[in-house]
Specification:
mainly alpha; 71% helix; 9 helices; single chain
């Protein structure tokens, strides 16, 4: 029985990983259950052994995406926060090219308001965790009104990546990220 439970958990995790990647690149409305299951190497019929509905899948995939982001935030903004390194990474070419595995905020912020209620709730929780990590780093730097500044820094990071990914020319996009990175570091005193 334990083997069956372990197999089911591994299969569910594989579905969630594929759903998270697909949603990051195509949006929550851009995936179908049949396409997702095919992408995961599974049959469509097995979907309902793991999720009650497509909306249930989307909500859990949002959780999965923010678990990945929480690891990234913890790596840079954990016990010994390094906000400069976090900004450098977030606005890097590496992050720019990691559409299917990177932070969900640049790709999904514009569509979050149209997601099913459970997914919107989880998205808001993820945004809060991201902002809280930035706020703790700003507090460690002794910045006044760190809560307000954290919201502004987060908006600038996400906005810069969103706009860069919308540009048809990689060179222009990377130059835009570089300018944003330098400007943000200067604005908060990390230049």
């Amino acid at each position: 029985m334990a083997d069956k439970s372990a197999h089911k958990a591994k299969t569910r995790a594989r579905i969630l990983d594929e759903a998270a990647a697909a949603i990051r690149s195509s949006g929550a409305q851009g995936i179908s259950v049949a396409e997702l299951m095919k992408r995961a190497g599974l049959t469509h019929g097995g979907f309902y052994a793991h999720f009650s509905s497509r909306d249930d899948l989307v909500a859990h995939a949002i959780d999965r995406m923010f678990q990945d982001s929480a690891m990234m935030v913890a790596r840079f903004l954990g016990d010994t926060p390094d906000l400069g390194a976090f900004i450098d990474y977030y606005l890097s070419e590496t992050a720019y090219r990691m559409v299917e595995r990177g932070c969900p905020l640049p790709g999904l912020s514009g569509e979050a308001g149209r997601m099913p209620p459970a997914a919107r709730t989880r998205f808001a929780q993820g945004v809060g965790g991201f902002r809280d990590g930035i706020e703790r780093a700003l507090e460690a730097l002794g910045k006044a009104d760190s809560a307000t500044l954290a919201s502004s820094v987060m908006a600038e990071l996400v906005g810069a990546m969103t706009l860069a990914r919308s540009m048809p020319d990689d060179g222009a996009a990377l130059a835009f990220l570089d300018a944003s990175r330098r400007g943000l570091r200067e604005r908060i005193g990390l230049a």
